[in-house]
Amino acid sequence: MKAIIDKELCTACGECADVCPVEAISIREEWAEVSDDCTLCGMCVDTCQYDAISLPEVGTGPKKDKEDYKGIWVFAEWRHGEIHKVSYELLTTGRKLASKKGIPLGAVLLGHNLEGMEKSLFEYGADVVYMVDHPSLEHFTDEIYGNVLTELIKKYKPEILLAGGTSTGRSFIPRVAALLRTGLTADCTELDINEEGLLVQTRPAFGGNIMASILCPHGRPQIATVRPKVMKAEPLEHPTNGLIERVDLPEEIFRTKIEVLAEHKVEGPSANLVEADVVVSGGRGLMKKDNFGMLYELAELLNGAVGASRGAVEAGYADSSQQVGQTGRTVAPVLYMAVGISGAIQHVVGMQGSQVIVAINKDKEAPIFDVCHLGIVADLFEFVPAFIKKIKQERGEKE
Amino acid sequence: MHIVVCLKQVPETQNIRIDPETHTLVRQGVASILNPFDYFALEAALKIKDERESVKVTAITMGPPQAKDVLIDALSRGADDAILISDRAFAGADTWATSFTLAAAIKKLEPVDLIICGKQAIDGDTAQVGPELATILNWPYATYVKNVEFLDNSTLKITRQTDEGYAVWKLPLPALLTILKDVGDPRPRSYKCTLRARKYDIPTWGVTDLNLDENQVGLKGSFTQVIKVFSPERRKDKLILEGSVDELVEQLYSWLKEQRIPGI
Ligand SMILES: Cc1cc2nc3c(=O)[nH]c(=O)nc-3n(C[C@H](O)[C@H](O)[C@H](O)COP(=O)(O)OP(=O)(O)OC[C@H]3O[C@@H](n4cnc5c(N)ncnc54)[C@H](O)[C@@H]3O)c2cc1C
Ligand SMILES: Nc1ncnc2c1ncn2[C@@H]1O[C@H](COP(=O)(O)O)[C@@H](O)[C@H]1O
Questions:
Q1: Domains of chain A
Q2: Alpha carbon of A90 to those of A69, A86, A149, A212, A230: distances in Å?
Q3: Does residue B244 register a pLDDT over 60?
Q4: Is the CB of A339 within 6 Å of ligand 1?
């Protein structure tokens, strides 16, 4: 199979041939021709100004009795007895999708001693909360969490499942998708329902350089993960208590080959990196480790965390657990401040989902200025201390 | 002990970008490289081979014929064997179809004790193939693994990174791990291994070798359908400020206030 050229529309302009990463497109006199080298990556499709290129359709996959599947589910994650914010964000999104389709919104809560935790799920719009309470669910393992969620889906048949793109969701949701034999789209940044009622899942690919919209036409449920803070959480104005459905499952579902020996929460400079609303990151421009001190001061004022570029980590200014980017952590805070960071693509892929990006760099040509919302061309050693002073002044604090 | 490392060849993403004027993708010599995370998977396997007796490391990749390059690289660094999984019918595979095909290859390679994957591939960034492959094989798995220890010949103690810290798990073999950079930098190619790699005749397995049906693999065997590929929106409202530090401080402060940044 290969990309399909509509010979009526093709003008043989050759732009597609230029973008094809595997050089599978050649230009005939009147149209473009695709060779067997085509990997169906789709890069040519967007390039074509004449809409002359399309990809063949996915095989049906094992067909499901699609009509039996109804409703949207959100996997509700918790930490230390509290629901994770990403679950509220997904419920808010799920609620919009559910009302567009006119179907109910469910939340799934798995764990041990969960009593009371379901309340806030109703505040964000869940009509039903499905709860499984079992000692084996106290610690996360992919096997049991995956098996339990799969059982629930088989029993209640939701047509859409949304889960957080956390270290938990990204780990066990693929198990659920594989057990149910259905598709899964990771790290979506936009979700919508199309005219046919299918979930349109839009996500970045190739390091954020391109966006792709993806459907799961035949598999059920249609499953998507979304990173924390990508969607907005809005509680209902007039929440009502929905239904609680406590589900008992046969003991064998809880059997596992994995034993959890320990779980540790790490305190320290990177503890809050993924969850913080504000991240102040420093790069090689900081020149030495001690200079990171001002970033800690700024971050503390803003109740945020301190990240770093790989350049800074390699130079020993920061800990490797603080590294943001392709080989580090992915963050998407409300505010990301890049201080003395050049903006190499490997760094940018780890922070481009941030709501507001501020860059401080003395080099006007630095690539970080292409990705930021607000760029400050200045010497960081003058700017950052002055900015700290300003915040303190505004708060009426003594220096 | 037989360890299989799953490697993927990916385009070097930094060279794939959108021309700001024409809004089209610029290829500009997009080279194919080994997925950076998979170097750590390979290194993790080779470390085990260094430390334990009679360990065989097989590198596998599914991709077009040129994906062979990543296998040659792996052999040059010390992998014992390599298999290229390649067939026209595999084109367009999503993570399910990829995992399904890799699972068939693993079954053909059995006995296998451990599969090591990278954390994710930088083209799709899905991190799904590892968990889906393990699930299809019905093996236990652990993702985001920072450290691997053997308790005995058939039991691992692993440390996996979580969003807030780490967890320590015990899991029996056969198992699958997806590995983080913490295992250490990949070793360089050695002269001896490079010579061997040059002579090594890498077998290619296709649909018939794996006893698969064309409808189960590639785009036909996939669940997810890409319907549109487009350029991300460029920032239209981008502001770049220059001037005296005092002015800049005022401007940033009031701008952040407008954006309702918590803490400002
Ligand atoms: C496979 C691979 C994976 C990678 N993964 C990551 C990753 O996960 N995360 C990551 O960050 N990088 C990663 N990198 C590295 C990345 O390509 C860059 O090398 C790195 O991000 C550069 O760090 P930097 O911006 O701090 O340093 P530099 O590129 O040296 O930039 C320093 C910047 O500071 C500015 N500056 C200097 N002095 C001042 C001053 N007084 N005031 C204001 N500005 C100043 C300079 O103008 C410059 O722009 C990866 C690379 C590869 C090949
Ligand atoms: N085509 C492939 N061939 C071999 N291994 C793969 C392939 N695709 C993915 N993998 C493995 O699965 C990991 C995760 O890939 P992904 O799910 O695409 O992010 C990679 O780091 C590889 O170890």
A1: 4-54 (3.30.70.20), 66-254 (3.40.50.620), 278-395 (3.40.50.1220)
A2: 20, 6, 17, 20, 9
A3: yes
A4: no
Q: Give the rounded distance of the alpha carbon of B174 from its chain centre.
A: 20
How many Cβ atoms from other residues are within 10 Å of residue B52's Cβ? 12
Maximum distance among all Cα pairs of chain B, rounded to whole angstroms: 71
Q: Is A227 exposed, middle or buried (0-12, 13-18, 19+ CB in 10 A)?
A: buried
Q: SS3 of B257, please? A: helix
Res. B235: pLDDT tops 70 = no
Helix (H) or strand (E) holding B142: strand B141-152
CB A168 within 8 A of CB A96: no
Residue length of chain B: 264
Looking at residues A324-330, what average pLDDT do you find?
Answer: 84
Q: Which tens digits make up the pLDDT trace of A54-113?
A: 887 766 555 568 888 999 999 999 988 899 999 999 999 999 999 999 999 999 999 999
Given this model, what pLDDT does residue A329 score? 85
Domains, chain B, ordered by start:
2-216 (3.40.50.620)
Q: Report which bound ligand comes closest to the CA of B58.
A: 2
Q: Determine phi and psi for A390, rounding to 5 degrees.
A: -60, -45
Partner-chain contact A175 B132, CB within 8 Å: yes
Is any Cβ of chain A less than 8 angstroms from the Cβ of B92? yes
Q: In residues, how long is chain A?
A: 399
The CA A259 to ligand 2 mean position distance, Å, reads: 26
ipTM of this complex: 0.88
SS3 per residue for A43-59: HHHHHCCCCCEECCCCC
**Which one of A209, A301, A377 has the shortest CB-CB distance to B16?**
A209
CA of B173: how far to CAs of B27, B108, B138, in Å? 43, 18, 12
Q: Does the pLDDT of residue A269 top 80, yes or no?
A: no
d(CA B194, CA B73) in angstroms, rounded, equals: 8
pLDDT tens digit sequence for A361-397: 999 999 999 889 999 999 999 999 999 999 999 888 6
Q: Is B98 in the pocket of ligand 2 (CB under 6 A)?
A: yes
Cα dihedral value B60, B63, B65, B66, nearest 10? -90
Instruction: List C-alpha distances in Å: A210 to A226, A349, B24, B170.
Output: 17, 12, 10, 39
* pLDDT classification of A318: cutoffs 50, 70, 90: very high
DSSP assignments along A131-171, one per residue: EEE-GGGSS--HHHHHHHHHHHHHHH--SEEEEE-STTHHH
Write b or e for each residue in B83-97: b if 16 or more Cβ atoms lie within 10 A of its Cβ, otherwise e.
Answer: bbbbbebbbbbbbbb
The structure's pTM equals 0.87
Amino acid at A125: G
Which chain B residues have a beta carbon less than 8 Å from that of A63? none
Extract the tokens encoding A255. 């059997």
Number of other residues whose CB lies within 10 A of the CB of residue B15 = 17
